[in-house]
Amino acid sequence: MRVAIYPGSFDPVTLGHWDLIQRAGRLVDRLVVAVLYNPAKTCAFSVAERVDFLRELLADTPHVEIATFHGLLVDYAKQQEAHFIVRGVRAFSDFEYEFQMALMNRKLAPDLETVFLMPKEEYSVVSSRMVREVGAMGGDISGLVPEMLVERIASRLLNPAQLG
Ligand code: PNS
Fold first, then answer.
1. What is the pLDDT of residues 146-157, one digit of tens each?
2. Which neighbouring-strand residues pair with 116?
3. Mean per-residue pLDDT for 63-85?
4. Secondary-structure class of domain 3-127 per CATH
5. Ligand 1 in reach of 8 Cβ (< 6 A)
6. 14 pocket-lining for ligand 1 (C-beta < 6 Å)
């Protein structure tokens, strides 16, 4: 049984994340999409909202689970008996950060491999940060986040006071 963890902030989930989840899901028997719970980091969406979005999106994807974690990713991966970590790289600009993270994780857990996947090229400029910025200014975020979530994400970004 091949198990992978796809960790991230997912603040909020984008079409790029969705694309990666589908790609990774085809490679493993069990994929755990793990949302980082980090009280020290200010996010636009609460962990509960981010998890809800993922649950809705992945309702029909049987071998993909949604979870939250805090602390070290490698500890959580061990707990889940994962064989590898999945991360997405869109462009060279992602490389430095991903490279450092992968090597640090390897130092902490030498048997845990990080596997990089590339999303569809049309998603190479899509990021949660862009979604937050465009959405907060009333711009159109369709084509950036999954269709079924566009309205909810857009209205929340326009009403940050509702932050849960
Ligand atoms: O979506 P993001 O914000 O790029 O995801 C970053 C994430 C959650 C993968 C990373 O911050 C993480 O793994 N945090 C857990 C803490 C940890 O394990 N740090 C040591 C490795 S750098």
1. 999 999 999 999
2. 87
3. 97
4. alpha beta
5. yes
6. no
